[in-house]
Amino acid sequence: MRTTVGIIGAGPAGLLLARLLHRAGIDSVVLEGRDRAYVEHRQRAGILEQGTVDVLRAAGAGERMDREGLRHDGIELRYDRKRHRVDFPALTGGRSVTVYAQTEVCKDLIALQLKEGGPLLFEAEALAVEGADTDAPSIRFRHEGREDVLECEYVVGCDGFWGVARKAIPTELTRVFERTYPYAWLGILADVPPSHDELVYARHDRGFALLSMRSPSVSRLYLQVPEGTDADSWADEEIWDELERRFETDDDWTLDRGPITQKSVTPMRSYVHEPMRHGRLFLAGDAAHIVPPTGAKGLNLAVGDVVTFAKALSYQKDTGSAELLDRYSETCLRRIWQAERFSYDMTSLLHRAPGATPFEDRMQLARLERIAGSRAAETDLAEAYTGFPFD
User: Fold this and answer.
1) Which residues belong to the signal peptide in this entry (predicted)?
2) Is 385 assigned a catalytic role?
3) Is position 201 annotated as part of the catalytic site?
4) How confident is the model at residue 389 (pLDDT cuts 50, 70, 90)?
């Protein structure tokens, strides 16, 4: 097999890249190790920045998102039994975010790729990227019980932290920056309408809590728990009781309960791999960077990466200049480090570290009071949450 761009991974990054390249007249092949059902049902992020929404619409993948997605014009911060709403459009010149699950983004992009785009091979396990530093890189993969080779002009690794793409970059050429947090998120899906129409981020002495949603009838909620927690060690009623405590306010707001249909534990870490390019191999998404979920940045960073690559390759096609491709890593990393900073700030602002001192508790409350009382501080949060520019 031969193509211009070999894409490893059919998550939102790989699928969107294939879509962008198709609309630019550049052919690609997508290799995905899992089957279609797995890709369309794995639960991941659900908050789309304004820029991500705009890109999906421009790519012709926004029809169902616009119909079923939930536009959110703000978030609520809770602390010390107080409530403060951050109004995104008022602070950012009209920007907002949209609640639309990654599973739904993938379904939309898969349907478009199979109808209009190039080959999308499921259960095609990428085994290695070879010749990354040559003009003819290739991907060795296994599909339908036999090994094959996809010959490319470029390879883009959208295959996550455990994928093969990053392993093709010599370790002596790389730098890794990472932080592991001493807590995790216990997340639940529940068949109950959300108890608030926008996301609620709660800082409490017992730990962080987040009220989110997947639809008008399905709630998604999270509790800060110790690292290594087993989700099954929490009984359903125990989870609801703890959520009630952490969301407590001085008014008459109440948390509605319902049947819990799913429980999972998400570890918390920050990770950046530099550079994001080696020869004709380019990394995108979790293959190059991971953020704690507090800032809702993971999927959106991956979108920024593939938009940057697609623009750079289109520029080379139109002008013959590799200038933008040569700057791919530098361009992406500027945005990534700002998102890492914001995600770290939100995490340290709202989570109570094991052994936190009374001084540290007061510092968190002082930072929250600053956001609630300063338009400048509130604007900084709103601009970051709704998304850093892709360029």
Assistant:
1) none
2) yes
3) yes
4) confident
Q: What are phi and psi of 108, to 5 degrees?
A: -65, -45
Within 13 Å and on the Cβ side, how many CA atoms surround 277? 19
Bridge pairing between strands 289-290 and 82-87: unpaired
The strand pairing partners of 267, in sequence order, are 184
Distance CA 148, CA 153 (A): 17
Mean pLDDT of 168-197: 96
Backbone angles phi, psi at 324, to 5 degrees: -70, -35
- Give yes or no for a contact between 139 and 149, defined as CB atoms under 8 angstroms apart: yes
Predicted local distance difference test score (pLDDT) of residue 116: 95
Region 131-138 average pLDDT:
97
DSSP string, 120-176: EETTEEEEEEE-TTSSS-EEEEEETTEEEEEE-SEEEE-S-TTSSTGGGS-GGG-EE
Q: Is 154 a known active-site residue?
A: no
Please confirm, yes or no, whether 293 is among the known catalytic residues.
yes
User: Tokens representing 293?
Assistant: 């979920």
Contact 9, 44 (CB under 8 A): no
What pLDDT digit, counting tens, does each position of 233-276 carry?
A: 999 999 999 999 999 999 999 999 999 999 999 999 999 999 99
Q: How much is the pTM?
A: 0.95
Catalytic residue among 297, 311, 328, 351: 297
Which residue in the list 12, 137, 292, 293 is annotated as catalytic? 293
Q: Give mean pLDDT, residues 67-80.
A: 97
**3-state class (DSSP) for residue 317:** helix
Distance of CA 146 to the CA centre of its chain: 33
The mean pLDDT of the chain is 96
